[in-house]
Amino acid sequence: MSKPLNILFVSSEVDPFAKTGGLADVSSSLPKAIKESGHEIRIMMPRYRFISERKFKLHDIIRLKDIPIPVGEAAELGNVKSSFISNLKDKVQVYFLDNAKYFGRDGVYQSPASKKDYQDNDERFIFFCRGVLETLKRLGWQPDIIHCNDWQAGLIPGYVKTVYGDDAFFKSIKTVFTIHNMAYQGAFPGDSFQKSGLPKEIFVPEGVEAYGKFNFLKTALYFADAITTVSKKYAEEICASDEMGAGLNGLLAHRKKDLHGILNGIDYHIWNPLTDELIYRKYDVKSIEAKIDNKKALVKRFNLEYNDTIPLVGAISRLVDQKGFDLVLEAMDDLMKLDLQFVLLGAGDHKIEKKFESYQKKYPSKMGVFFGFDDELAHLIEAGSDMFLMPSRYEPCGLNQMYSMRYGTVPVVRATGGLDDTVEDYAGGKGTGVKFEKYDPKELVKAVHRAMKIYHQPDEWKKLMRNGMAKDFSWEHSARQYAALYRELLKQ
Ligand code: ADP
User: Fold this and answer.
1) N or C: which end of the chain has fewer CB within 10 A?
2) pTM for the full model?
3) Where do the H-state alpha helices sit in 269-374?
4) Whose CA is nearest to atom 14 of ligand 1?
5) Probe ligand 1: pick from 178, 381, 399, 421, max atoms within 8 Å of CB?
6) pLDDT per residue over 167-224, tens digit each?
C-alpha cells in the first residue's frame, strides 16, 4: 500500500462541539472516515466559549500558548486546546484555536439574541485562518494537505500561496477547498482586506475582489489547488448560472477542471435506527413494524392524535430562503386539505417562524411546529415520520433526505443538487422517494399527493421504504474519492 497521508481538516463547525447545519456533520464524519481508511488526519476549529471544557475534556497545549497572530496592525494572541472525536475504532485529534476577544461568545456567526451577524466576522476569521497556519508551524506537524471548508477557512489557500509562499514549511503543502454552499461567501467591505495582510495586488476583480468587496470564498476559489463541492449536480449547477454560482460562476467555470463533485455520506454511528439512543424504539429493515411506536411518540410530542391511516409528514430545517419553505407556506392551505399530519422542527428567519405559527393555530389538529435547535427531536422526527419534506430552492447536498431513507422515511424532494443525485423517483417498484422539478407550490402539493397514493398501497409503500433503507450512503466511498484527489495533487 502507498504511504499514508497527513491531512489537516479546517472547519468553523464540527459536531458535537459546534453546529449550525450540515457542515458540522460533515466535518466530523468525513475526517473519521478518512482516518478509518488509514490516513493521519487532524481537525482545527475555533474554540467558541460554549464548547465546554469539562464536557469535552479540553486540555491546553502548553507549547501552543500565546501565539502572536497578525490581524491588521496588531498581533492578537492565540492559544490552542485539544480534544478528540472518535467512533468505535479511531480517534481524530481536534485542535481548538482560542482567543477570548474573537470567540468568547455565545454564537458561532451571529448573536443568538439579535440573530444578526457579528460585526467583526471579518477579523474573527482572518484571525482563524492565519492562526491555523501559525499554529501548524509551532506544532511542527507538517501535513501534506490542508483541506479547508467554506468561507470561514477561505483565506488559508490565499495565505499559503502568498504571505507564506516562500516559507519552506509550507512549500510542498497542497490545499483543497470544499464548497458546502455558494450562498455564504464572507464578503466584507474593501477595508477588511487590509486587516488580512494579503498582498494588495490581489485585491482586484481578477483576484479576490468581487463587486467591490473582499470575498473570502473567492479567495479560496482563486488560490486552492483543488476545489470540491458536495454533489456532482451542484458542481454543474454552480458553473452554469449566475444565480446558482451566486456571482462567482465565471471564476468557477474557469477552474472547472479543478472542480470535483464528491457526494457527502452519512455517519451510520450516529444515524442508524438500529442503534439510535435518541429515538423511542429501535428498528431496522427486519423489524420495520417497530417504526410505528416512534410515530406514536412523535405525534404525542406535538399534541396530535395518532391515526394509523394518516401519513405523517416531517421536516427539519434551517428556516432560510434556500430551503423552500416559502413554497410550503404558499401550499399550506392546499396541503391541509389532504388527509395528512405535518410536523416541523426549524430555526431561522423569524418571519417564516411567525407564518408557520399562525398556520399551526389555524390547523391545530393536523400540524405541529417547534422552533429551535433540538438534536433529539430531529432524530425522533426521522424515525417517526412516514415522509420527509425537502422542497429546497437549491441544495448543495442535503443530509436529511439520506437520514430519512436510512430510517425508512420516504423523502419528498425537489430535484435539485444533491437531492436530485441521491433520491430516485419511485416507479414500478424501483426508486427511493418522490421528486418534483419545478419550484412551484402546485408541484409540491402534487408530489405529496403522489406519495400519499403510494402510502395507501401498503405493499408498494413497504417496497419504497425498503429500497431507501437498503441504500448505502456510508462515507467510505466518498473518503476514497477524497484520498484519490489528495494523491493526484501530491502526484503520489
Ligand atoms: P444545511 O447544512 O444546509 O443546513 P443539511 O441537510 O446538509 O442542510 O444538514 C442539516 C443538518 O442540521 C442535519 O443534521 C439536520 O438534522 C440538522 N438540523 C437543521 N435544523 C435543525 C434543528 N432546528 N434542530 C436540530 N437539527 C437541525
Assistant:
1) N
2) 0.92
3) 291-301, 325-337, 350-362
4) 22
5) 399
6) 999 999 999 999 999 999 999 999 999 999 999 999 999 999 999 999 999 999 999 9
For residue 54, the CA-to-ligand 1 centroid distance in Å is 26
| Res 276: pLDDT | 98
Integer Rg of the chain from CA: 23
Which residues' Cβ are closer than 6 Å to ligand 1? 21-23, 25, 316-318, 345-347, 373-375, 378, 397-400
- What does the block give as the cell for 225? 489547488
CATH H superfamily, domain 6-265+475-491: Glycogen Phosphorylase B; (3.40.50.2000)
Best residue for ligand 1 mutational test, from 181, 316, 323 (most atoms within 8 Å of Cβ): 316
Element (H, E) at 74: strand 74-86
Taking a C-beta distance cutoff of 8 angstroms, is the pair 7, 492 a contact? Answer: no
Q: What is the pLDDT of residue 140?
A: 87
Higher-pLDDT residue of 438 and 270 is 438
The dotted CATH code for 285-469 is 3.40.50.2000
Domain boundaries, the chain: 6-265+475-491, 285-469
Asked whether residue 1 carries a pLDDT value surpassing 70, the answer given is: no
Atom of ligand 1 nearest to the CA of 401: 6
Is the pLDDT at 59 greater than 80? The verdict is yes
How far apart CA 436 and CA 415 sit, in angstroms, is 6
d(CA 262, CA 270): 21
Is residue 239 within 8 Å of 252, Cβ to Cβ? Answer: yes
Kindly report the three-state secondary structure assignment for every residue of 35-67: HHCCCEEEEEEECCCCCCCCCCCCEECHHHCCE
Query: Which of 400, 407, 409, when mutated, tests ligand 1's pocket best, judged by the most ligand atoms within 8 Å of its CB?
Result: 400
CA 170 to ligand 1 center in whole angstroms: 35
Give me ligand 1 centre to Cα 344, in Å: 12
Q: What are phi and psi of 293, to 5 degrees?
A: -65, -30
Task: Please determine whether the domains at 6-265+475-491 and 285-469 fall in the same fold group of CATH.
Answer: yes
Omega before residue 16 within 30° of 0, cis: yes
